[in-house]
Every structure is written in structure tokens, then in C-alpha cells.
Specification:
transmembrane helix, 5-stranded antiparallel β-sheet, Acid-sensing ion channels like fold, transmembrane, 8-stranded mixed β-sheet, membrane, 35% helix, alpha+beta
């Protein structure tokens, strides 16, 4: 299906109605291709990334915590329990340096805020010979206005340690100094964080696993299939179970023990399923199908010039044969009436009489080759350029000769 043929006219050996039919079929095929191209473009624009999930095993940092309470409280202790190889007992390490005590009541919410954010070297499954087993954190209310009728003491907000936006605000005192509207705007993504209400005089077992979302950064290049840039969004999925315990202390206290479920990290990565490069492949396949249909109907451009329409369909065989007979009368190419061996016995006058017949045969063969076998348009353009260059050179030589003759 060569669109250039539309601008070159039709073959002299074919009926004009056949050209009209070719134009109609080609317009229908091009319209179908244009419609399919539109569908592909709309599909790319409206495409939503799919999620490809994978799993890796790695050392895992503990999550960060924000502890909120209506009463002033103190994070009493923070202990990391390590098991060393070939030693039956665990070793406790103080992690109070990773804790931020409540600074003061935050007026807009009327709450006290404390935090726990583990250091970079604190890792579960990080060291085989000295492995972190659990982390224990205890909280105690030290507000004199507290009464035992109020069982709800704290709200626990869980945040991934590699993110830590909420914790950062409190640790750097920005949470208290910035306007409430600014804090609300910056921390709007923390509304989806896991939250737990903690009862007093309870022991809690906190178990979690880590997930990482690889989100494609918005860019116009994403639609074209160029490898995108990703933004990593880690978060925590967790469970909290409580065990009531008896204590002789008069201070309301809660204890939380932190352990990971495993060292497996789930990675959810966004992948574009449709891009313009993929669409170009689909369009190429559709173009090949359209070209095959056109070739089946009307034949190829070279070596197989006739298709179903010229040979079998709707009276076109008769029209085509009539036009070929009129335009190319020396078909088939070998003429039994011209015996080349007997030509040696002909007289000169008889040979001269054969010249127009042979010339007509050559012209017919040349016409057939031009229309069905060889694309001579490029060769003709080269010949025209050579003729123009020779004419220009001759005119320059003539002008030079005239000048010399005058001198």
C-alpha cells in the first residue's frame, strides 16, 4: 500500500475505474489506521501504572513512633535486647538517646508529644553474631490531674524510620513553633499512618513488616517509554496485641515490645503498561495488516502486480484484460510469429519492415517494466538532474566562447 502512487496517477494499462476503487479502499484503510492511532493515543494518556510486587530479604530498621497523650508523660525507659552467638542470655542496651521527651503541650491540639526514632545502626537481622531480638519502651503519666477513671492514656502513631516526617517536626521543635495551618499542610500525608490507642497498665506486643512503594515521578517522558525516575515511599504494616499485667507501681504505665515479623521486605513498583513506543509497534502491525489486505486485493507493487480484484471480482478481470490488450499488444513476450533463426534468410527490405514491429515490442516491454517491475521515478529524477547540469555547463561554455571571440 504505497500512498505515493496516489499522486502519480494510475497505470496506463489499467482501467480508470480500478484507480477509483483503489482510492476508495486506500481511504478506508487509512481512516481505520487513523482511528486505531487515536485509540492507542487515548489509551496511553489514560493508562494507569500497574503494580509489580517483589520481595527481598534484608536487615530492617525498627519503625519510629510518635506518642500522644492528653496528660504530661515521660518515656521512662528504652532498652534494646541483643542475643550474642553462643551466649544463653540476652544483653540489654540503653536506647534512651533515641527518645524525645514531651516538650510542652501543643496548644492547637491540647496534647503532649514524645517520639522514638532508632539510630541508623539499630537493625533487626543485621548482625548474625550479635543480633537484635526486641526493643522495649515504657511510658508513664506523671500528671497530677490524671485519674484512674480515664483508662485511655496514649495514642501511638507508627512511621517508617526512613521517612520520619512527623518525628522530625517534633524533634526539631518545628511542630511547636510553626503556624498550625503550616503544620497541617506539611503533615497531611501522615493521616494514613497506622494509629493505636494504648490502655494503661498493659503490656503490648508490636509486630510489623516493611513495605516500599516505588512511585513513578510525573514526567512527560513517561508516556514515551523512557525509563522513569522513581520516588520511594516506605511504610509500615503492623499488628498490636495487649496483655494485662499487675504492677505495684502507683504510676500509670504502659510497655510496648517491638519485633519484626520477618526480614522480608515487600516492594511494590509502578510499571507503565502502555507507552507511545509500544503504541508505535501496534500501529506498525496494523499498517502491515492494511498493506497485506491491499496487496491481496490489488497485488503488490512489483513482480506480482495483480490481485483478487483484477482477476476475479466484479467485472474487473474483463476490463483489465481489455486494457492490457489495448495497451500491451505484444503479450506474451515471446512471439511465435517472429522466428529469429529465419530472420537470417530475409531480405534487407523485409528486415526494414520488421523494425516498427520490433520497436513496438520494445516500447511495450519498457512500459510493462516501468509500471509493474521497476520503480523508475527516482532514475528519471537523476536523469533530469544530469540533463540540467549538462545544459548549465554547456551554456557556461558557450558564454565563455562568445566572450573569447569578442576579445
Amino acid at each position: 500500500m504505497n500512498l505515493i502512487d496516489l499522486f502519480r496517477g494510475h497505470r496506463r494499462s489499467e482501467p480508470t475505474t480500478l484507480l477509483v476503487l483503489k482510492l476508495i479502499i486506500m481511504i478506508i484503510l487509512v481512516a481505520c489506521l487513523a482511528g486505531y492511532l487515536t485509540i492507542v493515543i487515548i489509551d496511553v494518556i489514560q493508562d494507569a501504572p500497574i503494580i509489580r510486587t517483589s520481595y527481598i530479604k534484608s536487615a530492617i530498621r525498627p519503625p519510629s513512633f510518635v506518642i500522644k497523650s492528653s496528660y504530661n508523660f515521660t518515656i521512662v525507659s528504652c532498652l534494646e535486647g541483643y542475643f550474642k552467638l553462643n551466649e544463653p542470655n540476652s544483653t540489654l542496651v540503653d536506647c534512651k538517646s533515641d527518645v524525645t521527651q514531651p516538650y510542652r503541650m501543643y496548644e492547637p491540639t491540647q496534647l503532649y508529644y514524645g517520639t522514638y526514632q532508632p539510630s541508623q545502626q539499630v537493625l533487626f537481622y543485621g548482625n548474625v553474631y550479635n543480633q537484635l531480638d526486641s526493643i522495649s519502651i515504657s511510658f508513664a503519666i506523671n500528671n497530677s490531674s490524671y485519674t484512674t477513671d480515664n483508662k485511655w492514656g496514649y495514642e501511638l502513631v507508627v512511621e517508617d524510620s526512613d521517612n520520619g516526617t512527623f518525628v522530625k517536626y517534633i524533634k526539631e521543635k518545628e511542630f511547636y513553633e510553626l503556624p498550625f495551618s503550616k503544620v497541617t499542610e506539611d503533615l497531611r500525608d501522615t493521616d494514613s499512618l497506622p494509629k493505636y490507642n494504648l490502655l494503661l497498665n498493659q503490656f503490648y506486643q508490636f509486630e510489623y513488616h516493611r513495605k516500599i512503594e516505588e512511585v513513578i515521578k510525573p514526567s512527560w517522558m513517561n508516556d514515551f517509554g523512557i525509563p522513569p525516575a522513581y520516588e520511594s515511599k516506605p511504610h509500615i504494616e503492623s499488628t498490636l496485641s495487649a496483655i494485662t499485667y499487675n504492677t505495684s507501681s502507683s504510676i500509670p504505665i504502659a510497655i510496648i515490645s517491638i519485633k519484626p515479623k520477618s526480614n522480608t521486605i515487600q516492594i511494590d513498583k509502578e510499571v507503565r503498561a502502555r507507552t507511545y513506543l509500544n503504541g508505535m509497534g501496534l500501529i506498525g502491525g496494523a499498517w502491515g495488516l492494511a498493506a497485506a489486505i491491499y496487496t491481496l486485493l490489488f497485488g503488490a507493487d512489483t513482480l506480482r502486480p495483480w490481485g483478487i480484484v483484477q482477476m476475479y471480482c466484479c467485472g474487473f478481470p474483463r476490463l483489465t484484460q481489455r486494457k492490457l490488450k489495448k495497451t500491451l499488444p505484444i503479450i506474451p513476450f515471446f512471439d511465435t510469429h517472429i522466428d529469429t533463426e529465419a530472420n537470417h534468410d530475409l531480405s534487407m527490405a523485409e528486415k526494414i519492415e520488421l523494425i516498427p514491429l520490433l520497436q513496438s515490442r520494445i516500447d511495450s516491454l519498457e512500459l510493462f517494466l516501468q509500471e509493474y517491475v521497476v520503480d523508475v521515478y527516482y532514475l528519471n529524477s537523476v536523469r533530469d538532474k544530469l540533463a540540467k547540469s549538462r545544459a548549465t555547463l554547456n551554456s557556461m561554455i558557450d558564454a565563455n566562447n562568445q566572450y573569447e571571440s569578442r576579445v
